[in-house]
Write a structure and sequence with these properties.
The chain is α+β, with helices and mostly antiparallel strands. It has one domain. It is built from 6 helices and 4 strands. Helix 2 packs across helix 5, helix 3 runs antiparallel to helix 4 and helix 3 packs across helix 5. The longest helix is centred in the last third of the chain and has 17 residues. This is Gene transfer agent family protein. InterPro entries: Phage_TAC_11. It comes from Rhizobium leguminosarum.
Length: about 120
């Protein structure tokens, strides 16, 4: 199974591709004055700052291929104008995908071959 730093999520007004690669993670580090794993830890432990959420989502949109100006407009509409906890789960998913990868394919019993047919 391969993994990538890309994740598609229903967010805001549609489905968007988010990706935090090396460059976006470096910028996140600069913007938050903390390493990416420290930001993820803050998001998990409730010690986050509102900029942690907005920067993760904005940089994820840019890394996913959205123009920076469009990403900023979406952040102003769907993050800064909304309660922070509404976007918290998205920020966690985006940053976790950037740090440990997101599954490219779903694994499960529904896709496994029927053992009776294999024999």
């Amino acid at each position: 199974m391969s993994r990538s730093a890309t994740i598609d999520l229903d967010w805001g007004d549609g489905t968007y591709r988010f990706s935090l690669k090396w460059g976006e993670l470096a910028e996140l580090q600069e913007k938050t004055d903390a390493g990416p794993y420290v930001v993820l830890n803050r998001l998990h432990t409730g010690q986050w700052r509102i900029e942690d959420i907005s920067n993760v989502i904005r940089l994820g949109l840019i890394g996913g291929g959205l123009e920076p100006v469009k990403a900023l407009k979406l952040i102003r509409t769907y993050v800064e104008a909304r309660p922070p906890m509404e976007n918290h789960p998205h920020a966690v998913a985006i940053l976790a995908a950037g740090l440990i990868g997101a599954e490219d394919e779903r694994l499960g019993e529904a896709e496994a071959p029927d053992q009776a047919e294999v024999r």
